[in-house]
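Notes to self, Leucine-rich repeat neuronal protein 4-like:
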Amino acid sequence: MASPGKNLAALLLFLNASSLLHYNLLIHAASTSRPVTLPRILIMTDLGSDDDYKDDYFDNHSSPPEVLSSVNIPQLHQEPKLCQHNPCLENQEPCAKLLKQTGCLCPGISGADEPPHSPRIQALLPITKGDNRGMVEVQWCAPSSVVTGYRVVFEGSHGNALEFGGARRRGLVGSLESGTKVCVDAVNSVGHSTRSESACKRYDPPESSDHNLFAWVIGGGVALLLIIIITSVILWKHKVCQKGKEDSTDGLGNPSYSTEGTL
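result:
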């Protein structure tokens, strides 16, 4: 059995060897690991004012780009308009052509495979000047149909109609008496229109200027005659009164004259 002194010496030798081994391990780890850099702490003694901080911030940070919001422009819905087509005027462009050019709307038109609608008489005007003086001009408006021609019929014509082209809106007829009925029919390849009230009109001539002048002459002559008669009556009465006063004055100046009788 070993003595206590030898055991103590062996323990001390073991402790020394362990310390040496631990030291070598630490040195080896320090040589192989990366150096540790400690953070540097800066102590600012003068921070400055808030305005300086704002200026520095806006100098270092540019303002963000402005984003333009898209503006929605409302698109106005324009309703189609009616074509500028007057059915009562002559020498106009067809409404179908205006539709292709401008996109306007044409009134409903019946097809060429059916009789046209009835036209409308606009006026019956007497001709007072020129070579056609004494005749009557018939004016009408076209129907909403395909028309190739028009026929004008009036009372007393014994069924003999005056024919005009499809583009015409007026025509001349002979002299008419007051109250004569005039009608206009539309015609196409299928037939003619059914006559309506608006397609006929009675001739009512206006009073001519010659008649008005004659009436004024007669009226003026009658008025002048009445003035002469009234003036003559007034003068006659005035003369009678004057004569009566003179007779009264002459009787009072004569001594033999008495209101009670003869002296």
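- The beta strands are 120-126, 136-141, 149-154, 162-165, 170-173, 181-187, 200-202.
- The first helix runs from residue 4 to 32.
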